[in-house]
Amino acid sequence: MAKPVVIVVGAGLAGLTCARMLQRAKVTVRVLEASDGVGGRVRTDVVEGFRLDRGFQVLLTAYPEPPRWLDYAALDLQRFFPGARVRRAGRFHQLADPLRRPLHAARSVFTPVGSLADKLHVLDVWKQAHAGEVEDVFLRPQKTSRAYLRDVGFSDAMVEAFFQPFFGGIFLEKQLRTSSRMLEFVFRMFSSGATAVPARGMGELTAQLAGKLPQGSLHLNTPVEEVFGHRVRLVSGAREEADAVVVATDGRAAEDLLPGLPPRPTTGVTGLYFAAPEPPVRGPHLVLNGEGHGPVNNLAVMSEVSPAYAPAGQALVSVSVLETGQEAGALEARVREQLTEWFGAGVAGWRLLRTYALPRALPLQTPEAFEEPHRRVRLSPGLYACGDYRENGSIDGAMVSGRRAAEALLSDLELPLP
Predict the structure, then answer these.
(1) Residue 112 pLDDT
(2) Are 26 and 63 found together in one domain?
(3) CA–CA gap between residue 275 and residue 26 (Å, rounded)
(4) Count of domains for the chain
(5) Could you say which DSSP state residue 369 is in?
């Protein structure tokens, strides 16, 4: 009996995870990727010796799904300090995880980033987020993240100074309209493990997944124009048929390929990378804008986290702005003005390496979007869809959706799970 053939459209995290599981089950897989490389939104570009992730991203080692597919030792993960430096009242203040860095946390008790009561409320969130199993988080009653933080008892000052830039930088929206289920999930992940990046950039995640696929199964520069049943038509006009098709693109691209798929709003970010002669912040720290004004939401000196991100003797500064659509030159000027206020006149000598405008960086994750914790991956006989918009907007969510699509497909083909 001939082995089944499956076409996977898209070589991002979801598509590659799906393809890996199918390949383990002895299914012949053809992965069709429109661009010139794997990774989708999880790619790293090398520019003048600097490694630029396509938007600031991190891997939370507590995520349940990635360890099933990734070799963490081979990734050589480099860790951030468990906490953040917050710009507030004209100065930088260190906040630390009170459970993992109790001495650092004790020193921050009297900083102007929230009151003592606010800092004690962090333990309340910890208890709620860690109650039960991880999956239970997505079944709880929900509200917006802002309402959740208010109901826990945090002051407006604490929300503005810390939670808005911290969770806003994760959810890519300042209003904190994201579901409290997602807030609890992310809080649990941050507080249970390390926040890290592969030594040579986030693109190593998808490169490692793709490297385990059989030779000849991955086809780059192969954009798909249309999907109909278990057949696809390429932009070139060629048609390909298989036993099943999995659409593993982002949500907007999936809507184009699959008419009738309910639309899912997205949210975006603009990332700017600067080469600096020396790091403006020493150590592997996330820096948050807790002052509530200016374009910069968060900043990290990536070469302080992993020296491989920059050539020797230079520093790579990653800046995230929670807005898209502004003219690049005008945005750079605003960012430089704010960073000069933070770090001094030396910012004028920083060299802009690249600006990434990413209007579709994440699905918008409001409470309404989480009414169905796991969106169906089987659309019709022989047709499946996966991606973070079908699970949750995280590395873990993308990979879970890829696995779920493969499981549904193998079940329909009456093949055993690997």
Answers:
(1) 58
(2) no
(3) 46
(4) 3
(5) G
